[in-house]
Amino acid sequence: MHVTQLVPFHLGPPLPAYGPPTVLPPQILRGLLRGLPETIYEADGCLLQPLTFSSPSPTYRQAMADLKKLNVLMCGTGEYTTGWTGSGASTSDKKIGVVALTLFDLRRRDKVNHLGMVGVNGKKFPAIRQHLEKNIAGAYKDMDVSFEEFPKDNLVDADAYKTAIDKMSPGEAVIIFTPDTTHFPIAIYAIERGLHVLVTKPATKLLAHHNELIAAAQKHNVVCFVEHHKRFDPVYSDARARAATLGEFNFFNAWMSQPKSQLETFRAWAGKDSDISYYLSSHHIDICCWILQDIAVPTRVVASAATGIATSAPYNCVPETEDTITLLVDWQSLKSPTHKGTAVYTASWTAPLKSGVHSAQHWYYMGEKGDINVDQAHRGYDVTVDETGKSWVNPFYMKYSPSESGHFDGQRGYGYISIEKFVDAVREVNTGLTQPSDYDKHGLPTIRNTVLTTAILNAGRISLDEKRPVGIKKDGEQWILE
Ligand SMILES: NC(=O)c1ccc[n+]([C@@H]2O[C@H](COP(=O)([O-])OP(=O)(O)OC[C@H]3O[C@@H](n4cnc5c(N)ncnc54)[C@H](O)[C@@H]3O)[C@@H](O)[C@H]2O)c1
């Protein structure tokens, strides 16, 4: 391959020692790229990703040593963090979780240092540690799975996150994967103490809380991202770039569902603390808002819900629990007063069992000059096993099979990248290379760039509760509902 042009996309000033020459033979190019895994280079129109993480080169070690390692507190000890649920190891597609595994690997790669984990019930930690020892330390080479736990001494304490955060120093980071109603109080507590925050979706249930987080992050000059990992799915990010060439927006339709058995898993909060729209539609609402950033804005939301399955035997969820929620959203073009678009976002947790996928997910986008169809549940890769039948699997999200050297090998998965981007941003800010506001300009899921996702979800919930359309509009610098 003859490389004619090499363009670094790196937030902040380029690292001087690695200034790219214009023509490079592939073997030298590979050596350089191995040194800078958080940088994506474009050469001859190809995206070149870093090649290996198993045996970092001396240049890699030096570059990383220049940025201080980050101490991180994980809030939540559940399925997404550890793969451990109240009733044992998860049976979903996240058997060993995402957050802790990624952070253990980032520690192996010298990006993070001390790790803490806070839940509510300290009695769970022996089982969690055993699970991580067996399935992570026992499965991959060089994995240190140690962490400091909160609450300590087998105590049960819903405010243990305050104790854990109070022990931290400004500039350190908190990653929040707890029930939806707790995202806001934990995030604001951390931000007000000068800590950087990565919060899972939905960032907050209320638009007013989302606005408060934007203001607090700005005031305390910290990084605050929402963990919308689908933005790092190569198909979604490619589709966004193509949608940008299709002119005015016309129509978007998204479907996302999980099998009815999830109602057992979610029994503690389903219909009480949150709904299926917040839980699943948050993903594709965010993708749609991301695609339409600078193209159109949402103006009105009407919601409709199907009911009756979740509240019946054998699930017997609380009477308020909806099965399937659809949000119908009007969008107004920013450039053309005559161009208006419609989006339909549907999510369900009463989909059939044994469909071969944990999450069904597909969407359709139509613009003025063309359309895009995405089916992310079926990626042309299926596995059939005698006992369990056929399943469509997705290693592009989390790849759990080890590398040829026996190390964890999922660094290119978008579940991993999403967390690594946050860690990189925080380290760059802490070193003075960038400002937190720089990340708003790069299409990343910062708290400011995700406000319309929360506006639509919150409007949808009000529409269901009050049986009326809900308007979305800008009041000065702030988005509000009416
Ligand atoms: N599981 C997934 O696939 C997935 C994917 C993306 C995002 N999420 C989001 O992550 C969040 C948690 O999901 P999960 O599946 O890991 O849930 P889970 O029920 O398995 O775990 C929730 C954890 O939060 C902890 N928690 C509750 N209140 C707390 C508090 N006050 N302080 C500290 N910890 C507290 C609980 O102890 C538990 O460990 C939800 O907002 C969900 O939408 C989950």
From TrEMBL:
Species per Swiss-Prot/TrEMBL record: Cyclocybe aegerita (Black poplar mushroom)
Protein name, UniProt field: Gfo/Idh/MocA-like oxidoreductase N-terminal domain-containing protein
GO annotation, biological process: NADPH regeneration
One GO molecular-function entry: oxidoreductase activity
Residue ranges constituting the Gfo/Idh/MocA-like oxidoreductase N-terminal domain according to the UniProt record: 116-228
Annotated signal sequence range: none
Gene Ontology, cellular component aspect: cytoplasm
